Amino acid sequence: MKKVKVMKKTVMMLVFCGVFVVGSAMAMDNKSSDHAQHETQATMDRPKMGGMDHSQMDHGSSQEGGTFKHAVMVDGIHAEFQIMELASMNMSDPEGRTHHVMVSFMKDGQPVAQVVGKVKLIAPSGKEQIGDLKDFGSGVFAANFTIDEHGQWGVICLFKDMGGKHTVKFWYKHGAM
Question: What does the pLDDT read at residue 16?
């Protein structure tokens, strides 16, 4: 319950401050993960679902081969998150961060490319990290973090597109299951 209160307080503080920084594009070679091609292809194959209100629908989470995935519909935008170890992607971070939090945004079957935002991770101990979402193209954004504690991590993503501000919150379980 304490973690939920901390997350709510954090979201309110971030929304109040309205701090959004324009992500800078990062070039990656083909040996690194080509985020835009990989994620866009995976999400564009899904058929559009009409006739139902999916504005706040949580599509759920899964864990496969070291990659955690969480999909949610918020305000008509399909957001799909992936949390991966940088080492498993043959990537490293100049500041020694260990994990990559990637998110793709789709609306009406098309990538949402004009997004700015931040991701906040809250460790089981309460330690917080905030990272700016960097634009990898085709509606795919990411930030790197240090995930060094086993247990439930709170993930909060605040993003802004042409339609306004949006918030996604979910839990990521790291470590021994």
Answer: 34
